[in-house]
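Q: Hi! First time asking for a complex rather than a single chain. Here are the components, and I think there are two in total. Is that enough to go on?
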Amino acid sequence: MPHATASQTIGPYWHLLEDKDWTDLTRFGAQGERIALTGRIIDGDGALVTDACVELWQASPAASDQWDGFGRAATDKQGEFRFVTLKPGPVPVSPGGKVMQAPHISLAIFARGLMTHLHTRVYFQGEALNAQDPLLCALPDTRRGTLIAQEQAPSLWRLDIVLQGDGETVFLDV
Amino acid sequence: MTTTAFRPYAPGTQPLNDTPSYRSTGKRHPVQPLVALPTGQTATELLPPHFAAARYPASADLSRVNGQEAQGERIIVAGRVLDEDGRPLPHTMIEIWQANAAGRYDHPLDTHPAPLDPHFHGAARVFTDEEGRYSFTTIKPGAYPWRNHANAWRPNHIHYSLFGAGFAQRLVTQMYFPGDPLLELDPIFHATPDAAARNRLIAAFDIGITQPEWALGYRFDFVLRGRGATPFEDAA
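A: Yes, that's all I need. Here is the structure of the assembled complex.
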């Protein structure tokens, strides 16, 4: 068999796929602690990335017919994305396993100028499990914070994403 | 429970985010190396989003809007979604978007002075069947200019988004057409170093898919990452 198909950029016109309802993962009636997650995307010049596609996927809570675990948002003129979702619980290392990672959300960033999407994670400031999370523990102190969202107001979490340069977000080789 | 991780991409078969000939990559690619997960892939990477069929209706015909035929050359695109071991991916979502026959997207940011077509929108969603097969009908998209370099034109292409069986298999790509002279000039096509990997982005004309008196057929198979040879044992 051939190797996996090559990725190509999502380009500037991916909004033909956009459905604004997809920014709210609770739209099918899933129950849990509802939160908003927002942030902006910044390039290596500090410019706002206004044409990105941000995809959110979380393995916790477990998927069901009321809960896809998946959302997609466009960045706006301020480079901002915004989701409404459920706060995840601890996520097993192995599906169904007992060894846990700290609660986190996966983000995939697609945009014109990105030939392949970038994987990153959003953790939550103040979670006790952060201190034992395998990924957070493996990162240097100077970079760990790029993955940890801060609570700006009750149930409103924020994490900015820097594609390149000072404060560059940790992107993952998955 | 044992879950097998997806194996790494073969060297050279994926494009580089730092591709200077594609100007928009300049300030958007990370300069720090990607960080490996110390545990290897976890539930977050190994599990997929759940798209209940009832909530995501499929639409396999882009060639008409409200029963009215779009302008251009009607085509059928068909193929399979497989993994690197040849295993089909059943019931997986494929999203599709493209320019119209004149090379214009139905998108507010596309200012190319080519006509919009009121009978062509250019977005659809299909799911693979039990054997990983998919098919849809559309209009062959036109080439269009972009401002990457002097006299730059994108080759004819259709955009795709696939989800697979775990988020680590996520794929967004573009399919090209055989014999397109613009391919050799296109920095996006050439961002993948391995020539064989690049050329697999080109669909094949297929007389077997072609329907008499109706539409030309093209075959295009998607290959998503295979599972590693070493099972990932639950540490619990």
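A: The longest strand of chain B covers residues 74-83. Let me know if you'd like any chain examined more closely.
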